[in-house]
Write a structure and sequence with these properties.
By secondary structure, the chain is an all-alpha fold. It has one domain. It contains 3 helices and no strands. It is extended, with a radius of gyration of 19 Å. About 10% of the residues are buried.
């Protein structure tokens, strides 16, 4: 098995377990369930991309309901998210003390 596919499968399995734990209890916290669902979708997308890169096969999740957004919008939003994460969480420059 390809290392990339195996890593993506492990992340997908972990995300699936977290999602099941979040929504399977007697009380379902909305924010926790939404975060788990988002991580599960990301993991499924990463797994499908790894499979496509290695084998050329289409996604095994083609019957799963999509977000309703077209590919261009999703790409644009992902790029914006990545740009924000780099600018907001990047290294903080250290300033030298002012000379007296």
């Amino acid at each position: 098995m390809s290392k990339k596919i195996d890593d993506a499968r492990k992340k997908f399995s972990k995300a699936l377990k977290k999602h099941a734990e979040a929504v399977g209890g007697s009380r379902v916290p909305l924010k926790q369930a939404e975060r788990a669902a988002s991580k599960l979708q990301d993991a499924a997308t990463a797994y499908a991309a790894a499979v496509k890169a290695k084998s050329g096969l289409d996604t095994p999740f083609s019957e799963v309901k999509s977000t309703g957004l077209d590919d261009a919008t999703i790409t644009s939003l992902a790029a914006e998210r990545d740009a924000l994460s780099k600018s907001l969480t990047g290294p903080v420059p250290v300033q030298k003390a002012a000379k007296k």
